[in-house]
Design goal:
By secondary structure, the chain is α/β, with parallel strands linked by helices. It has three helices and five strands; from the N terminus they run H-E-H-E-E-H-E-E. It has one domain. Helix content is 40%, strand content 13%. A three-stranded parallel beta sheet has the order 1-2-4, with helices on one face. A two-stranded antiparallel sheet has the order 3-5.
Amino acid sequence: MVEALKKRGKEVTIVTTEITKLDPLAEKVLRTTARLGIKKYRLGFEKYTRDKPVPETLREVGAALKDLAALNRELGLQGAGKIIPARTMSARPSGISGR
């Protein structure tokens, strides 16, 4: 699809993903995204759970984002997040850009 759009003078500038941590599938998606020349992607959302304290959840999410940031630096990508109220969370783009 990216190539078909390029032939028509269009560009894919961002992809939406459900990526919340670095795992083999996430790495494959991000490597493919970079290979296609797309530099930005949107992260998936983490959900708060009542059985885990918020600070613990934030530590886990922070660790996952550090792993993603390292791959972002390697591939020249930027991950973007969005804050949505009501038991979901996503990171600020500045925290995951890999820059």
